Amino acid sequence: MSVDIIATPRSTALLARANPLAKLGAGMALTVVLLVSVDWVSATVALVLECILLPLAGLSLRMLLTRGWPILLASLVGGYGTALLAPKTGELLLALGPVTFSTGSLEAGVAIALRGLAIALPGIIVLASTDPTDLADALAQKLRLPHRFVLGALAAMRLVGLLVAEWQTLGMARRARGVGGASGLFSRLKAQLGQAMALLVQAVRRASRLAVTMEAKGFGTGERTWARESTFSHIDIAVVATGLVIAGVSVSAAVVLGTWNPVF
Amino acid sequence: MAIVQNRGAPVQVSVRGWGWQHSGRNNQALHGLDLEISPGERVLLLGPSGAGKSTLLHALAGVLGDDEDANEMGELLIDGRPVHESRGRTGLMQQDPDAQVVLSRIGDDVAFGAENLAVPREEIWRRVPAALESVGLNLPLDHSSSALSGGQKQRLGLAGILAMRPGLLLLDEPTANLDPAGVVEVRDAVRRSLDETGATLVVVEHRVSVWLEVVDRIVVLAPAALGEPGGVLFDGPPATVLAQSRDLLAKAGIWVPGHVPEVRARITNPSDAGRPLLLEAEGLAVSRTKGRKRRPVVPAAVVPSVQVRAGHALSVTGLNGSGKSTLALTLAGLLAPVSGHLAALEPLARGAGPEPLKWRGRDLISRIGTVFQEPEHQFVAGTVRDELLFAPRLLGRGEDTVDELLVRLRLEHLADANPFTLSGGEKRRLSVATVLAASPQLLVLDEPTFGQDANTWAELASLLTELLDAGTAVVSVTHDAAFSAVLGGDRLVLGAPADLTGAQAATKVARR
């Protein structure tokens, strides 16, 4: 009855077949370019092109909204704050005491909000289309990161899913002892802390048993082979190229339209 | 590469004057142990708790660790070589099914051990389906390993071990956390794979009957007590050893075939219907997850009617996943019902209202006490005594009942110990005692006898018959037919899991 948060069925989307490192590389290229400039044109172009790619990651706009609404909210808040605080250039649009917006400050706010979304979206696309096991394979085989570390982290992530169910059980088990029934903020906080400690104890105990299992299976000593080979294919070339093209097109559009606004 | 060629051949084990002392403890778990196990032998290792059976198994698996404070003596040889030079020759299986699985897809998980032994990729993928076939797990290789039952997880762990082609299987109470169906399925998988590979087997288990038809030798270990050296007490073919050591094993709490521990019988008539009704439910649907308006949950079980009376026992049985525990937790006021009617009547509620779920913690524990399957989940204090004092303090009662409970459940010598350091049986006794310290009128127990030795089992059953005679109601979720027979009362059988059959779970109440 564990809740599995990482082992969702393997996605059949095209991007799921790409090597995780290629996806990370494309995302990074795009992020760097978008970080360089604060302007609404490059951010909008990148955002639109990214949205076109969503189906390739097996995502729909609807799924994106249900999963990624905190990011949308954060971008809007960031944009609002910028519009409020940016230098008031251009025509004054609204003045209610200290709350003033001008065309210039509004433009800066819109650019910040769009940029935030355009930077976050590649991350969501990579996460949604990447299986953690594939990522671990790529990190250890292609980037040559230490396999002890990579596979240890992967095994630990699997335990996180078990902790969700464990937290629910602990809550009931402790209520059955009379813990946490008291009202008042302090006693509730105390009960929650106690439950968190109990969860930690259970997590450590289970992790040490899992470590014994892994050690008994010969993990961590000497050379190992890989049952799943992490490979690069023509899809990966296309993925990296797409990332570079989106970055290039957004910069060119901003330069052509004269909104290119490097931060340094 | 002599080691590689050797792989898969049955292993010879030599234990010579071996001893191990845990850091920070005065008494040695094992001392001066001598034991020879020939290749292909199948050995059942028995002994009272504290005899060092698990320690020996972990040592043979090479996972006792580099504990610098621990003290090791003598020799432990696998095919004449020290254990640390015999990587991949042994495979260890532990109790906890969730600690058995490393990766999230079953094919990858089976491959994990072979990868670590640097087996070539093509060879790994030849071994993986074969290993899954041996343990009878006929599922796709990309099936999620979290979606398996306890018995399936243990078999998955075994498949991973088999893919390493070890010459020695070490099983540390592999079925202690499983229901009867899971026990048989794991035992049969082990037997089948032994028949195929001819590997040597050492299994630790206190239910002798489970492994009796598989093993050809029983070794009984004694703990190294004060002045006693410990070591091998009996050794030989199963029939001989059982005949020699029957009384001693039964006394040590080991489940010897044909021996039923003595239990205090009930005095009052279990079917006396004159007792007050405490809790009743009609058309109760239960689930662990809360439904939303748009997506209502599929209930884990639907029960037409449940009545709980003072002094009555109700045993809830049924297959794995039929929602037994969920029903018990709902009756105990810990989960909200999905639909239907559940009410605590006045003799139980005593002014706290008809819905146990809404009672405050203090009101709940003095009315309904729940004992969870895993005792550790319910520990809230640093010592055994504080654990027992917790409820009386919360209720503002005197503390004199605590000493009585300590003695009654043989925990008085452990009063200052940390609950987490107790043995399995002691933890079970403590978890029951902590709940009884609040003297609830209704006791709900989830698989109280899972993995328990015969002594703890008998104590628990005797205690419950005593409580029942004194008027406490007992609802227990259990697969243990002998246990529910001792308690008497009604039996509620839950049907197949609703999410598997698509139909609502069928239920019936049988009166015995």
TrEMBL record, chain A:
<keyword id="KW-1003">Cell membrane</keyword>
<keyword id="KW-0472">Membrane</keyword>
<keyword id="KW-1133">Transmembrane helix</keyword>
<protein>
    <submittedName>
        <fullName>Cobalt transporter</fullName>
    </submittedName>
</protein>
<dbReference type="GO" id="GO:0005886">
    <property type="term" value="C:plasma membrane"/>
</dbReference>
<dbReference type="Pfam" id="PF02361">
    <property type="entry name" value="CbiQ"/>
</dbReference>
<keyword id="KW-0812">Transmembrane</keyword>
<dbReference type="InterPro" id="IPR051611">
    <property type="entry name" value="ECF_transporter_component"/>
</dbReference>
<dbReference type="InterPro" id="IPR003339">
    <property type="entry name" value="ABC/ECF_trnsptr_transmembrane"/>
</dbReference>
TrEMBL record, chain B:
<dbReference type="InterPro" id="IPR003439">
    <property type="entry name" value="ABC_transporter-like_ATP-bd"/>
</dbReference>
<dbReference type="Pfam" id="PF00005">
    <property type="entry name" value="ABC_tran"/>
</dbReference>
<keyword id="KW-0067">ATP-binding</keyword>
<feature type="domain" description="ABC transporter">
    <location>
        <begin position="15"/>
        <end position="248"/>
    </location>
</feature>
<dbReference type="GO" id="GO:0043190">
    <property type="term" value="C:ATP-binding cassette (ABC) transporter complex"/>
</dbReference>
<keyword id="KW-0547">Nucleotide-binding</keyword>
<dbReference type="GO" id="GO:0042626">
    <property type="term" value="F:ATPase-coupled transmembrane transporter activity"/>
</dbReference>
<dbReference type="InterPro" id="IPR003593">
    <property type="entry name" value="AAA+_ATPase"/>
</dbReference>
<dbReference type="GO" id="GO:0005524">
    <property type="term" value="F:ATP binding"/>
</dbReference>
<dbReference type="InterPro" id="IPR027417">
    <property type="entry name" value="P-loop_NTPase"/>
</dbReference>
<protein>
    <submittedName>
        <fullName>ABC transporter ATP-binding protein</fullName>
    </submittedName>
</protein>
<dbReference type="InterPro" id="IPR015856">
    <property type="entry name" value="ABC_transpr_CbiO/EcfA_su"/>
</dbReference>
<dbReference type="GO" id="GO:0016887">
    <property type="term" value="F:ATP hydrolysis activity"/>
</dbReference>
<keyword id="KW-0813">Transport</keyword>
<dbReference type="InterPro" id="IPR017871">
    <property type="entry name" value="ABC_transporter-like_CS"/>
</dbReference>
<comment type="similarity">
    <text>Belongs to the ABC transporter superfamily.</text>
</comment>
<dbReference type="InterPro" id="IPR050095">
    <property type="entry name" value="ECF_ABC_transporter_ATP-bd"/>
</dbReference>
<feature type="domain" description="ABC transporter">
    <location>
        <begin position="279"/>
        <end position="512"/>
    </location>
</feature>
